[in-house]
Amino acid sequence: MVLRAFIIGALAGVLSSPALAPQAAAQPAPATAVANGQKLYVAQGCYECHGMVGQGSSFSGPRLASPVMPAAGFVKQLRQPRYEMPPYSDKVLSDAQVGDIIAYLQSIPRPAAADSITLLK
Amino acid sequence: MAKTRDRDGSAQNQVGRRRFMTGAAVAGVGLTVAGVAPAQEATPAAAPPKAGVPIETAAAEQHPPAHVDQLTTGSTGSDYMVDVLKSLDIQYIASNPGSTFRALQESIINYGGNKMPEFLTCCHEESAVGIAHGYAKAAGKPMATLLHGTVGMMHGSMAIYNAYVDRVPILVLTGNAGNATNRRPGVEWAHSVQDGASLVRDFTKWDDQPASLDAFGNSLVRAYKLAVTAPQAPTVIVADGDLQEDALEEGTTLRVPRLSKVTMPAGDPNAVREAAKLLVAAENPVILVDRYARSAEGMAMLIALAEAVQAPVCDLGARMNFPNTHYLNHSERRGPLVAEADVIFAIEPVDLWGTMNRLRDQLHRTTQSATKPGVKVVSIGLGGDFMAKSNYQDFQHYAETDLAIAGDGEATMPGLLDAVRQAIAADRRSSLDARGEKLKKAFAGIRDRARAEATYGWDASPISTARMCMELWNAIKDSDWVLASETGFQSNWPKRLWSFDKQHRHIGGAGGAGVGYGLPSSVGAALANRDKGRLTVSLQGDGDLMYAPGALWTAAHHSIPILSVVHNNRAYHQEVMHVQRMANRHNRGTERAHIGTTLTDPYIDYATVAKGMGVYSIGPISNPADLGPALQKAVEVVKRGEPALVDVVSQPR
Predict the structure, then answer these.
(1) Closest CB from B451, B491, B601 relative to A59
(2) Taking the model in full, what pTM does it have?
(3) For the domain A2-19+29-111, what is the CATH code?
(4) What domains, with CATH codes, occur in chain B?
(5) In the Cβ-directed half-sphere of A9, how many Cα atoms lie within 13 Å?
(6) Is B231 exposed, middle or buried (0-12, 13-18, 19+ CB in 10 A)?
(7) pLDDT tens, B164-183?
(8) Residue B170 main-chain phi, psi, to 5 deg
(9) A77 and chain B: CB distance < 8 Å anywhere?
(10) What confidence tens digit (pLDDT) does each residue in B70-119 have?
(11) What is the predicted ipTM?
């Protein structure tokens, strides 16, 4: 519980960071969906493999944010994953809950270009 | 039987006190020793003692043989043992002190002057062996370790396993009170064993328990030679307590056997020529290389081979094999290259089957080939099929090959290079060059893609592994640096974005994947690099650090300059993911997967832990903007010759 509270607080800090350019969604999801999606993203361990802001890892799982894959493909990968990802059945995550996770991922701002970051030049 | 001088200076054939007691037991009734009144005269007539019962009655103790009063001696067998160690150019011996080798330790520090070898004080035997593991890879030669019998060996055994799987030489010595008659009551019995090396025999290359000093000399030299001859691995010598502690007559000289020059076994020349032809003729070859390069020369030869045939190289990372700045390094493209290859050329592969196949870890496990039909597979190395013991399964899944050449990779390379150059006909050159041009273009995009990926989560807190690694790179890139840790848990950012241009930049990983390797091995590597003026850094796992954090004290005590950047993700994340996998499989949700897998409540303050052990430390750091200045300060400390630790609260991977 302590770790999850820490992570959720940390995620809130990332999303409000002024250094990131905001990414406008075609139809912004309700704030409750984004908040709920963030909680589920942590509680269901998505961050373990895909990073706390969906940045992914070459070691454990691809990037999920910016851009987010279409919902149909997202759900299919969740329920019947290819390769190593463990399955999330609808007993664990309902379609509505998956929608909220997608809403959260879509709310994550696109990062700045590598050329604008001194340490990445 | 040792000759000793009697107190009046005359030499006599006398047994040492211990062997006297044993001999008396065997002789039974009626044994007298000149100068000692028989015990029976002091007491009323009694039934004669039974055969085999030591004649150590109270009366005998009141009138012990004259030589038993001798309490000191100039030299004991342990001094000779140090002479043998010195002949092997052993610079350090890492140890946590133990009574089973008390004489050897004293001989090291006094008779030997605590030099060649120098005694490294460790707080745990696992740290001692781990230090030796990292040292050997960075120094190119082994260190010795001295492990207390039984319980010390048990403590060190995981680290010995790691070194065995990683094929790294370590000279392991352990003590033992083998002679039961002479054991002190209590602890010495609990710490004695009939076969001191049996605990680790399944994962060491050779062991011996010499019964004489002459045999000890032979065996220690042989153990060293076996350890450093490929396939390299730890060897064990049991130094019996009596051999250590029995007196040596003044003027006694024991011969130290000469270590002959070590050469590595090379692959059969005919097979090597056949392999060369296959490589040269391939249209889509890929060179896979893993536990190969021991030296800069080894890497240079591999570069020459790859350039000769213009073949992409995938460095699988058990050693630093191929520079990531070279256009033929296509490690990031391994999947597609293996899938399209018509020839897979593997040099010292660790898990060739795992590279050519995919096993799906789901409820029903299925296997799929990752190669195309008809691919030719060549392997050169001394891996699992050359030195394989039955019990521990580190030899991996059997890999089907078309040509498997048993030979050390580096030792085989000169012959392979010659054979390849001879096999390239003039009309083949242009097509090879054309392939090289395509590979240059493909290489150009690899780093740009990595840079773009690194931007995601750049300003996040907890700090992204990309940010952590690039802040560290900025602090060390102008030094002669060495990364002593593995990089997979940090999403391989160093290998993707730093410049690994020289063979000494990286030393590979644990081998056996036993957690707890990271901290001591980086201390050992830093010790080897200290005299070369190299800056050693480590991306240190938090869980790994907690196994035996006392290695931090060892670094402080011995002034070993190592920069430990703690990848503090507050959990054993591999295990979190494993438990999550099981929870999902059972449709139970993953909300409880943190139980038993996370390091929270309280959070461990690694900077305080390190400070308590005398290590300069900063942290915990959660704000990425604070990381750069902290690392710069820490690097200054390390450059002054002292260890430093920076605790970075970071993302899982």
Answers:
(1) B491
(2) 0.89
(3) 1.10.760.10
(4) 4-69 (no CATH), 77-245 (3.40.50.970), 269-447 (3.40.50.1220), 455-649 (3.40.50.970)
(5) 7
(6) buried
(7) 999 999 999 999 999 999 99
(8) -140, 135
(9) no
(10) 888 889 999 999 999 999 999 999 999 999 999 999 999 999 999 999 99
(11) 0.83
